[in-house]
């Protein structure tokens, strides 16, 4: 068996890692995974058993080697693992689409299965343009987005990410210029469910948003945002009222409202979908990440019957087809695992509304993170601590020393991936109270060690 040192050496200079230079390599090799834990080995050969505070970038909600998901994957492989979706269909895709329509906000009735979250955003933007064309408004070719947003790394998705503080400024000449609203005011939600924010700031934001939208409405096809929680843009939480305002603006100016629920969907914020905090329904919604419980890459775009009917009319220059078709669209293996993941979220048949397993799990995460991260508020290097559902964030006064904080957390039994000025966790839903305490104490001690002076 190759040692961790061998693997780390072979990796460096061979593989790119996310948002890193080629020679950055990796600091740890994963040798095993189970439940909410990873087994890591470092370059010195030392073994570290850690709780995965990242849930593999927010997707592995049911944990590693989950028996139900493993069984679903094995059963589908024994049947067939892939078949083209052009002109063919199969039970896993149909069942998944039916389940998504059943779970999604009212009105979303049609499903496009995509390879990844970023591609689902691409499809959503394409659909909005084709919709406006079919409605006789082909001049509407731009989108209204929020500053601070992040929607993926492909080109159309990049164009609606924050154009200044985002990660794609180097590609500005190639990404279409969109229109950006100011970032909404910050908000916090208490354990009791109350929202705290500055009402005067929100009113000022609303006035500016309505004025900007009215000024440019004739060129805008739709509005896109991450509801309530901007993830890679800074783990930033804003009030539900913002979504209501955006819904009103979209209705007033005949735009489509696109909600990117890739990170927030399936319970992460304390509601099954973040839009439900505001009581609004989008015209288009994207989901991904937790859709397969982190097992396989899969995402979906859902839209209303009215949007689909506009395309179906064939009135647009592109005809009635939605012009996208990935090779692995509707992959049976991914769809089968996604169905099993949704079963775990929803619970056995007959589970009463309001008592689905994810609700108790995320409530436990919220209580545990609120308690275990509370001590970091007193540290001199900390600006703010905030918790929303299964998300815990420590915002520092200065940019985080990523390598040092990561190493200090691993030494204390937690795997985290800090960025910007943030040390945060979005752990698996299955984390126990003891594991949440370990995560909290590890992060508190790591921040105190590295940024405490």
Brief digest:
With 453 residues, this protein is α/β, with parallel strands linked by helices.
Keywords:
single chain, 453 residues, alpha/beta, seven-stranded mixed β-sheet, four-stranded mixed β-sheet, 13 helices, 18% strand, transferase, adenosylmethionine-8-amino-7-oxononanoate transaminase activity, PyrdxlP-dep_Trfase, aminotransferase
Walk across the major sheet and give the strand order.
4-14-13-12-9-5-6
Distance between the termini: 43 Å
Characterize the overall form: globular
Portion in strands: 15-25%
Structural class: alpha/beta
Poorly predicted runs of 5 or more residues:
none
* Largest sheet geometry: 7 strands, mixed
**Radius of gyration (Å):** 22 Å
Q: Total strand count, please?
A: 18
Helix content: 25-40%
Determine the mean pLDDT: 94
How many individual helices?
Answer: 13
How does the SSE layout of this entry go?
Elements: H1 4-11, E1 28-34, E2 37-42, E3 47-52, H2 55-58, H3 67-79, H4 91-103, E4 108-114, H5 117-134, E5 142-146, H6 155-159, E6 179-181, E7 188-189, E8 195-196, H7 199-216, E9 220-225, E10 229-230, E11 236-237, H8 241-252, E12 256-260, E13 284-287, E14 299-304, H9 305-312, H10 332-346, H11 357-372, E15 382-388, E16 391-396, H12 402-411, E17 414-415, E18 422-425, H13 433-451
Helix pairs in contact: 3-10, 4-10, 5-9, 7-8, 11-13, 12-13
Structural summary, described in words:
Pfam families: Aminotran_3. Catalyzes the transfer of the alpha-amino group from S-adenosyl-L-methionine (SAM) to 7-keto-8-aminopelargonic acid (KAPA) to form 7,8-diaminopelargonic acid (DAPA). It is the only aminotransferase known to utilize SAM as an amino donor. InterPro entries: Aminotrans_3, Aminotrans_3_PPA_site, BioA, PyrdxlP-dep_Trfase, PyrdxlP-dep_Trfase_major, PyrdxlP-dep_Trfase_small. This protein is of the alpha/beta class and 453 residues long. Helix content is 35%, strand content 18%. The protein has helices spanning 4-11, 55-58, 67-79, 91-103, 117-134, 155-159, 199-216, 241-252, 305-312, 332-346, 357-372, 402-411, 433-451, and strands spanning 28-34, 37-42, 47-52, 108-114, 142-146, 179-181, 188-189, 195-196, 220-225, 229-230, 236-237, 256-260, 284-287, 299-304, 382-388, 391-396, 414-415, 422-425. It has a seven-stranded mixed beta sheet, with helices on both faces. β7 (188-189) and β8 form a beta hairpin. The two termini are 43 Å apart.
């Amino acid at each position: 068996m190759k040692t961790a040192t061998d693997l780390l050496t072979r990796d460096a200079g061979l593989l790119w890692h996310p948002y890193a230079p080629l020679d950055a390599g990796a600091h740890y090799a994963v040798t095993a995974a189970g439940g909410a834990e990873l087994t890591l080995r470092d370059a010195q050969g030392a073994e570290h058993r850690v709780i995965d505070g990242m849930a593999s970038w927010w997707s592995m909600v049911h944990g590693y080697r989950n028996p139900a998901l493993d069984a679903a994957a094995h059963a589908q492989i024994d049947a067939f693992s892939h078949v083209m979706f052009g002109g063919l269909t199969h039970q896993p895709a149909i069942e998944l689409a039916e389940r998504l329509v059943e779970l999604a906000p009212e009105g979303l009735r049609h499903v496009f299965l995509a390879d990844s979250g970023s591609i689902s955003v691409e499809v959503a933007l394409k659909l909005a343009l084709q919709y406006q064309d079919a409605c006789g408004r082909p001049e509407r070719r731009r989108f209204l987005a929020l500053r601070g947003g992040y929607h993926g790394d492909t080109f159309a998705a990049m164009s609606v990410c924050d154009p200044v503080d985002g990660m794609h400024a180097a590609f500005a000449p190639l990404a279409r210029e969109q229109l950006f609203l100011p970032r909404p005011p910050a908000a916090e939600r208490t354990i009791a469910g109350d929202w705290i924010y500055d009402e005067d700031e929100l009113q000022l934001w609303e006035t500016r948003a309505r004025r900007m939208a009215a000024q440019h409405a004739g060129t805008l096809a739709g509005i896109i945002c991450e509801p309530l929680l901007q993830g890679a843009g800074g783990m930033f939480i804003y009030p539900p009222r913002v979504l209501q305002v955006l819904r009103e603006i979209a209705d007033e100016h005949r735009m489509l409202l696109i909600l990117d629920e890739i990170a927030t969907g399936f319970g992460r914020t304390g509601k099954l979908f973040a839009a439900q905090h505001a009581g609004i329904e989008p015209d288009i919604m994207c989901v991904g990440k937790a859709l397969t419980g982190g097992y396989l890459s899969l995402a979906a775009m859902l839209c209303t019957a009215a949007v689909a009917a506009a395309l179906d009319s064939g009135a647009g220059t592109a005809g009635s087809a939605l012009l996208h078709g990935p090779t692995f669209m509707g992959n049976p293996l991914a769809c089968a695992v996604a169905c099993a993941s949704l079963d775990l979220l929803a619970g056995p048949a007959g589970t009463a509304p309001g008592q689905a397993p994810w609700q108790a799990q995320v409530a436990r995460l919220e209580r545990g993170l609120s308690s275990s991260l509370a001590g970091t508020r007193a540290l001199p290097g900390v600006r703010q601590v905030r918790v929303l559902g299964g998300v815990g964030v420590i915002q520092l006064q200065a940019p985080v020393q990523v390598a040092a904080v990561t190493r200090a957390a691993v030494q204390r039994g937690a795997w985290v991936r800090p960025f910007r000025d943030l040390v945060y966790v979005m752990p698996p839903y299955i984390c126990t109270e003891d594991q949440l305490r370990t995560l909290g104490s590890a992060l508190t001690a790591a921040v105190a060690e590295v940024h405490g002076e």
